[in-house]
Amino acid sequence: MSSNVSRAMMLAGIGLALFGVSIAVLLRLLPGPHTEKDYFIIGCMATLVSLVAVFLLVITTWIKSPIPFFKRRGKRPGKKMFDI
């Protein structure tokens, strides 16, 4: 298996495990009996936690740039900043 495939499978496994753990924790935290709205809120919160965690893992492991969201533009040779 290639390195990228194994990393992607590892991230998917971490996301699924974190989703299951967060559901179990939220089911314990919310007082029972649970209604449909409670299960909806638990699912939404578990999804949010999982997606944020996987996003942070991808940003810190795959992207090696110090500032991943911005790129500095190279200077154009022979042009000044406000050359009109």
Task: Offer a quick outline of the entry.
63% of the residues lie in helices and 0% in strands.
Question: Can you put this structure into words, describing what you see?
Answer:
With 84 residues, this protein is mainly α. It has one domain. 63% of the residues lie in helices and 0% in strands. The chain has 2 helices and no strands. The longest helix is centred in the N-terminal third of the chain and has 27 residues, at 3-29. The chain is elongated and about 70 Å long.
Q: What is the mean pLDDT?
A: 81
Strand content: under 5%
**Structural category:** mainly alpha
What's the tally of helices?
2
Order of helices and strands: HH
Low-confidence runs of at least 5 consecutive residues: none
Number of domains: 1
Alpha-carbon Rg, integer: 21 Å
Which sheet architecture does the biggest sheet show? none
- Identify the overall geometry: elongated
**How helical, in percent, are the residues?**
55-70%
Number of strands: 0
**Terminal Cα span:** 55 Å
Keywords:
single chain, mainly alpha, elongated
